[in-house]
Amino acid sequence: MPQPDERKDHPLSMRLPQADIAMIDRAASLRGRSRTEFVRDAAVRAAETVVMEMALIRMSAEGFEAFLSMIAAPATPVPEIVDLVRRPAPWEIPGEPLSRS
Fold first, then answer.
1. What's the domain range around 35?
2. Is residue 3 predicted with pLDDT exceeding 90?
């Protein structure tokens, strides 16, 4: 007799105020997602951020010295970023319509 597959989905239940549900539903709708998809993605993203913040980074003494040297060195300008920062904002250009893209 074949063994039933182990269930891969696990239910998660929570009670939320109606205002929270309305906000979640509105955001999910704007993204074209279901409430479940939206909440799952947001929760997983938040969990990944916490785990990454708490991750321990190990390196050799030589690697750590190289890392310290890199962050202590003077910054090197990135030409594309310098150009972007120097460009006037669309609302600063007379006669230019604002793009809605």
1. 18-89
2. no
